[in-house]
Amino acid sequence: MRRGLSGNPRSIAMHPSFVSRPFGSEQGRFLALDLGGTNVRATLVELGGKHDVRVLDHRSFRLASTSGSTDDLFGPVADFLMSVLTEHGADGMGYIFAFPVNQSGIRSGRLTKWTKEFAFDGVEGQDVVVLMERAIRDRMDRDGDFRIRALANDTVGVLAAGAYLDPRCDMGLIVGTGANLAVAVPNDMIVRRDLPASVGNTSEMIFNMECGNFDGVDSIQTDVDRKLDAESDTSGQLMEKMIAGRYLGEVARLRVLEAESKGEGFEGWVGEGGDFSAPYSFTTEQLSDIIFDDSDDLTATAMELGRLGVATTTTDERRHLKEICVSVARRSAGIVAESIVATATYIDPGLNDEHMVAVDGSVFRGIPGYREEVERGLALTLGEGADRIQVCYLRDGSGLGAAVVAAVTASSRMEGG
Ligand code: GLC
What we know:
Blueprint: H1 2-5, E1 15-16, E2 27-35, E3 39-48, E4 53-62, E5 67-68, H2 70-85, E6 93-97, E7 101-105, E8 108-111, E9 119-120, H3 128-138, E10 150-152, H4 154-165, E11 169-175, E12 179-186, E13 204-208, H5 223-231, H6 240-243, H7 245-261, H8 284-292, H9 299-307, H10 315-347, E14 355-360, H11 362-366, H12 370-382, E15 389-393, H13 397-414
Parallel strand pairs: 2-6, 5-9, 6-10, 11-14, 14-15
Antiparallel strand pairs: 1-13, 2-3, 3-4, 7-8, 11-12, 12-13
Helix pairs in contact: 2-3, 4-13, 5-7, 7-8, 7-10, 8-10, 10-12
The structure holds alpha-D-glucopyranose.
């Protein structure tokens, strides 16, 4: 983190967001676009100015693919957005682009690399605001003008939304398809000197850590992790590959394959014809469902496996599979807890202040017992100090946050900032 904040990042980039946390007094009606996976969302948000937020409209659509040309990505998103824009007026739009973007200002930034197995051509190295605005303008009347007010990572969004609702919030965490953290850093800890003052509160800046890319986890990688990484289309992201929804099902599936090859059961599961043998055929949702199944002989698990073409299984095998799923999920939650601890104690080594992490994401929300495991991890590492860190789930926090970041930008312009 220190290296990142001094402008010499290694595996944790610490990308500046150019914005601070909100004051909670920002007002107005803002549109939020949240693009970070196949489920693209638009939310119209009314900020009341007293730490209160109302969602006026929320829509989503699914991208057909995670690869293709630049137009295959920005075209459908712009079509979707146009349908929302023609219906609603707003004071501005905030844009969440939930991939590693090296921002050069509040409304510009280049994609450094795709993550989460996304792979659209011609986007890496490009300014994702320019690409989005161009696609929207192409769909407007000839003299139509459209400007995105603010660009932010989804972790920055969830942090901004959390802080709008509760000023103690100083970290934003996503554990969904991908995994990453953002943190509000006081100016005296920002070693690099090339950054302008933040929009909003000039005494701090939020940083998108991009800690899913942390490679210090190589010492705890298993053979399965190394295999998953070698076969992945996304480079790096070693920690994310142990934590995030894009990968957990596959980690469990590879662990089953490994056990089978060692003669530890699962005979016939990976044979030809069954879906279980195909990469990524076992999803993180299925892993969740199996953890959720607490029947004695794991009947729901047997049905789930039947759907994957694994027709005959023994109760012992199903129990073994459940143990694998539980341990994969538990490890993910444990690493998330350690990441929170590392971040909180970096900005406040003695944990003298109260901290709050706002969290969004399907893994945190969806895997049974996940949240408790994160809390257990905090308590294991910090003992009573864990009381200083609250972890709060904030549904659609990143979308709300896009609106909040746009509002911070708008009100600082009004004040001439
Ligand atoms: C991936 C992206 C990161 C994002 C995270 C959660 O790690 O690189 O930018 O915040 O997923 O969506």
